[in-house]
Amino acid sequence: xxxxxxxxxxxxxxxxxxxxxxxxxxxxxxxxxxxxxxxxxxxxxxxxxxxxxxxxxxxxxxxxxxxxxxxxxxxxxxxxxxxxxxxxxxxxxxxxxxxxxxxxxxxxxxxxxxxxxxxxxxxxxxxxxxxxxxxxxxxxxxxxxxxxxxxxxxxxxxxxxxxxxxxxxxxxxxxxxxxxxxxxxxxxxxxxxxxxxxxxxxxxxxxxxxxxxx
Length: 214
Ligand code: SF4
Fold this sequence. Notes:
This protein has helices spanning 7-10, 12-18, 30-40, 45-58, 62-66, 70-77, 83-97, 107-111, 118-128, 139-148, 156-166, 174-184, 202-213. By secondary structure, the chain is mainly α. The two termini are 25 Å apart. It has two domains: 7-20 and 135-213, Helix-hairpin-Helix base-excision DNA repair enzymes (C-terminal) (Endonuclease Iii, domain 2, Orthogonal Bundle), CATH 1.10.1670; 30-128, Orthogonal Bundle (Endonuclease III, domain 1). The mean pLDDT is 95. It is built from 13 helices and no strands. It is 58% helix and 0% strand. It binds iron/sulfur cluster (SF4).
């Protein structure tokens, strides 16, 4: 990790750019978000957005989902990766929570539910407006954060910890901002020339130095 960058300052343009960007999952309420976050693990947001309307027509709230059987859910989510486990998790979770307004509002309580890890819990807290207890680290952030130099390695938990150490809690939305950057600009093949973070980015500086030496 770079020791020259003051990340609480350097991250501000990124936070500013994406602060009002809606989450890529088109959810209508917190119940829908919880279900969609679980379904989207290892699948694409687009796929989940496409199947969501029919799913929520059949299961409009936590209570109706708690009465679902695997067979009644399969027609709606059989196109989702790992749908067998996800079906089980959704039914189990709905039976634990029972009502939409009992959806937990802390990281510990959310991660105690089946199918919800730290990343999903951080997303749910963020979207529900609860104070951040961690940083969203998804596949995009695992790519972007080490390129930027704000974290090292490829373990999401370790990347999250490093970001939490260098940024104050008020800036922990940097995870979601990096995720948006990763979707738009810092793709597997990054568009560094048009990236607003290239002034601090370790990957970009290395490329420029290499280019100058050629
Ligand atoms: S400058 Fe390039 S590598 Fe760095 S964050 Fe931007 S797009 Fe990614």
